[in-house]
Amino acid sequence: MPIKPEKMIKYLKQMGFVEVSRHIHKGTSHIYFKNFKTGLSTEVPMHKGKELRKGTQNKILKEAGLKHVFK
């Protein structure tokens, strides 16, 4: 089930990730996160009014070393 990027960001922060940078271009942005304990990093795309696609969600979670099913 697709989720909003804000929910993914909240989850990443709960799991110990912190925002390290943000790239903004023409109304879209990509926020880069890193967990300094594990050394893993990932990015979350923020596109106006769009939810994350399932494949994007899975990629973010895999890069972050997390497994979670959003409801």
What attributes characterize this protein structure?
3-stranded antiparallel sheet, 30% helix, 2 helices, alpha+beta, globular
Instruction: Give the CA-CA distance, first to last residue.
Output: 7 Å
Q: How many individual domains?
A: 1
Question: Mean of the pLDDT scores?
Answer: 91
- Tally of helical runs: 2
Order of helices and strands: HEEEH
Largest sheet, strands/sense/barrel: 3 strands, antiparallel
- Sheet with most strands: strand arrangement: 1-2-3
Shape: globular
The helical percent reads 25-40%
Number of strands: 3
Runs in which pLDDT lies below 50 for 5 or more consecutive residues are none
| Strand percent estimate | 25-35%
Which oligomerization state do the chains in this entry correspond to? single chain
Question: What is the C-alpha radius of gyration, as a whole number of Å?
Answer: 11 Å
What structural category characterises the helix and strand content? alpha+beta
Q: What do you see in this structure?
A:
- Keywords: Endonuclease, Hydrolase, Nuclease, RNA-binding, Stress response, Toxin-antitoxin system.
- With 71 residues, the chain is α+β, with helices and mostly antiparallel strands.
- It has one domain (5-64).
- Helix content is 30%, strand content 30%.
- The protein contains 2 helices and 3 strands; from the N terminus they run αβββα.
- A 3-stranded antiparallel β-sheet has the order 1-2-3.
- β2 and β3 form a beta hairpin.
- The longest helix has 11 residues, at 54-64.
- It is globular and about 35 Å long.
- The N and C termini lie close together (7 Å).
